[in-house]
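Quick start: what a row looks like.
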Amino acid sequence: MASCNNRTVIVTGAGAGLGRAYAIELAAAGANVVVNDIRAEAASAVVEEILAKGGKAIASSDDITSIASAQKIVDAALAAFGDVHAVVNNAGILRDRMFVTLTEDDWDQVMRVHLRGHFCLANILGRRWREQSKAGQAVDARIINTTSGAGLQGSIGQSNYSAAKGGIATLTLVQAAEMKRYGVTANALAPAARTAMTLAGMPDKVKKPEDGSFDFYDPANVASLVVWLVSPDSRDVTGQVFEAEGDRISVCDGWRSGPEVKKGGARWTPEDIGPAVRDLMKRAVPAQKVWGS
């Protein structure tokens, strides 16, 4: 089904894993795909695969972590296809250590690729879509971000990654609220699939089954949701965070105000706080456990 005909999509980190699966499925659905990966050979290989199947794609190896280089990605997309309708921010790295052994560089590199990388392309395209909308052009655009279970509930040994992915989830909510008036939706995925990252961290869990049974961690399982989110059919869905793995899709229930207690117009004293907080904890819905705890 060509649900994304004539829609141009930039997919970052698309040289392998989830990004590659997204690019291939989007092209099969009729999209023009900009396959971006810092590894030029990997990006070109995915483009060759798409072209061999009759799809449309170009390769890009420009850096997503600066406005200047991200602008080159957008310019290449415009030169090849005339417009851009969606960005799938997928690229990421890991620098896993326990919190007290993290270095400043471990922290900065993860923040740069994940948070800054999610900012640059979306900022450039967001300004373009806003200008188009203000000029009277009908805009039906998409920002699709990548968070993680680590970002939603934390993960031992991944405080930098968890903080970045949590920031991306919240960034998505703000993008959705600010950009809706211009015809732009923003949603995030927390995917679980077989990638270089998961193969390094839990190879036995995510490996492909040898008995021919359903390949739960095949990245293509997540790609179908990405295709739908890029398609015109999803224009009324925004500000959501989806978990996707195998045969499961879940919409996340984010931070919200829970049980409360008031002092009745008086100031709380330190002596009152303890009993009040313990009562609130009894009534609160327990948080999901941090991964690895």
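That is the whole record. The beta strands are 8-12, 32-36, 56-60, 86-88, 141-146, 184-192, 241-245, 248-251. The chain has a mean pLDDT of 95.
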